[in-house]
Amino acid sequence: MPSFLESKTVLVTGACGTVGRELVKQLLEDHQVKELVALDNNESDLFFLEQKYSKFSQSSFFLADTRDHEKLRRKMKDINVVFHTAAFKHVILCERSPFEAVQTNIIGVQNIIRAAAANNVEKVIFTSSDKAVNPTNVMGTSKLMGERLMTAAFSNLREEGPMLASTRFGNVLGSRGSVIPIFREQIKNGGPITLTDPEMTRFIMSIKGAVRLVIDSAELSRGGEVFVTKMPVIRIKDLAEIMITELAPQYGHNPDNINIEIIGTKPGEKMYEELMSIEETRRSWELERYFVVLPALNGSYANDAIDYKGLKSKTVTNPYNSANETPLSKEELKAFLYDNDLLTEDVTDLQHPAERYWPNGEKSTER
């Protein structure tokens, strides 16, 4: 079946990030987009990404920053669909430098919206985070504001303008800086594995699943919504124990000799994650693979007029919280890891450090 993106010109921000790179791959190889424009401010990674996809004549790669509205406006000329994945995502770094997070994760989103409106872009999809729900840290708060900007911008449209929507991710396992490559390096070095808290739970998704959410959201969106993927829950302690059992022998270590060290939670970190708040359940619908949180402001249309493919129910009563969902068993989690090649070391990725250092209050001051 032809992809709805096949005849579209598409722009991806944050093209060198984990989700951005997979988006570029799928858009070129699977969806055969008419033209792809990839933006990132990481010079070296962008250079190598361009070399990797040099055989695709419809692709072009540019150094750009979402803080630069004029650059975005120029690059969005004749673009149909924008996937906005560029963001600061590390909780500690955003806590330490909150205004940097504001400039990229909030003002950057507003720049995307303005540039898209100026160029009559058809659709803009913003990638958000589970940390945007009842946020306890700067990163989550900035992502929530990004969602609100997208929803408000769409509700304020008077006539023609972009269809704006958001997607809300759980933890993308295997992404750079995530716990899997860190655990792998620690196991490779003979341990110990550093665990924040044995009771911590998280929603998880694969990189391919995250990108499927982004692309599906572009096809499904009617404007102003937040799409939430139904995804499994795991205990981080179970993940650590499975990785020790499966990977230690590959690196010449006895699994029994690799210890787990409890180091405590990061500043602003939750023991559980939420993908939907209680307030949001009152305006959420359930689809086959997603929940869709409808906008609280319905200036552009009435909810009764919306028609989603795969609609199961217009009533959602249970907030989507990892503490309230049954975690995968260890066998189920192990199968998930192998099915998604998450225990295979990718030698093309940047080296991950084995250390995990939580800065103290004296070092977390904005300078």
Description:
The chain has 367 residues and is α/β, with parallel strands linked by helices. It has a single domain (9-358), classed as Rossmann fold. It has helices at 18-29, 43-52, 69-75, 91-96, 98-118, 138-155, 179-188, 207-220, 236-247, 278-281, 330-339, and strands at residues 9-13, 35-40, 59-63, 81-84, 123-129, 163-169, 171-172, 193-195, 201-205, 226-229, 233-235, 260-262, 284-287, 290-293, 311-313. The strands form 3 sheets. A 10-stranded mixed β-sheet has the order 3-2-1-4-5-6-10-14-13-15, sandwiched between helices. It has a 3-stranded mixed β-sheet with strand order 7-9-11.
Rg measurement, Å: 20 Å
What is the fold-level CATH name, i.e. the topology?
Rossmann fold
Highest-level CATH class: Alpha Beta
The CA-CA distance between the termini, in Å, is 53 Å
Proportion of residues in β-strands = 15-25%
| Major sheet characteristics | 10 strands, mixed
Topology as a string of helices (H) and strands (E): EHEHEHEHHEHEEHEEHEEHEHEEEH
Mean pLDDT across the residues is 88
User: CATH H-level name... which superfamily?
Assistant: NAD(P)-binding Rossmann-like Domain
Strand order of the largest sheet: 3-2-1-4-5-6-10-14-13-15
Task: Count structural domains.
Answer: 1
Helix content: 25-40%
Shape: globular
Please outline what is shown here.
The chain is of the alpha/beta class.
